[in-house]
């Protein structure tokens, strides 16, 4: 299963976004293919060690945008793209557009 990893400050504020993205994936018939979940930004290294072969994209919450460069360095050896979620899409929990962006980034995985 391919993993779409969302990371925020505590992993809790992103749970609504995860729920909306799962709903959007279900509508596209992609829910069975992708495991969408959230973790705290500080747990990314550990998550990559455990699942780097399954993670297809890392999307950071706007509140942890400061961690983008460090996350890109962690993900680079695995060819995993990293981006910060658009603050407006995150704030409105627009699962469809965030999923669309995640899938677009995932297609760039090396």
Overview of this structure, please?
With 110 residues, this protein is an alpha/beta fold. The model has no long low-confidence stretch (mean pLDDT 93). It is globular. The chain is built from 5 helices and 4 strands, in the order βαβαβαβαα. Strands 2-1-3-4 form a 4-stranded parallel sheet, with helices on both faces.
Name some characteristics of this structure.
110 residues, alpha/beta, 4-stranded parallel beta sheet, 5 helices, 4 strands, globular
Question: Order of strands across the biggest sheet?
Answer: 2-1-3-4
Structural class: alpha/beta
**Portion in helices:** 40-55%
How large, in whole angstroms, is the Cα Rg?
A: 12 Å
Overall, the morphology is: globular
- The whole-number mean of residue pLDDT values reads 93
For the report, how would you describe the main beta sheet? 4 strands, parallel
Order of helices and strands: EHEHEHEHH
Number of strands: 4
Oligomeric form: single chain
Distance between the termini: 17 Å
- Contiguous low-pLDDT stretches (5 residues minimum) are none
How are the secondary structure elements laid out?
Blueprint: E1 2-8, H1 15-28, E2 34-40, H2 44-51, E3 55-60, H3 68-75, E4 82-84, H4 87-91, H5 95-106
Parallel strand pairs: 1-2, 1-3, 3-4
């Amino acid at each position: 299963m391919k993993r779409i990893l969302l990371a925020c400050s505590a992993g809790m504020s992103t749970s609504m976004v995860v729920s909306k993205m799962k709903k959007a994936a279900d509508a596209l018939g992609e829910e069975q293919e992708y495991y969408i979940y959230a973790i705290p930004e500080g747990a990314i290294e550990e998550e990559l060690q455990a699942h780097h072969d399954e993670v297809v994209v890392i999307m950071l919450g706007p509140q942890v945008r400061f961690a983008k460069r460090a996350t890109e360095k962690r993900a680079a050896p695995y060819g995993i793209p990293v981006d910060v979620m658009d603050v407006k899409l995150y704030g409105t929990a627009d699962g469809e557009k965030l999923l669309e962006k995640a899938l677009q980034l995932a297609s760039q995985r090396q």
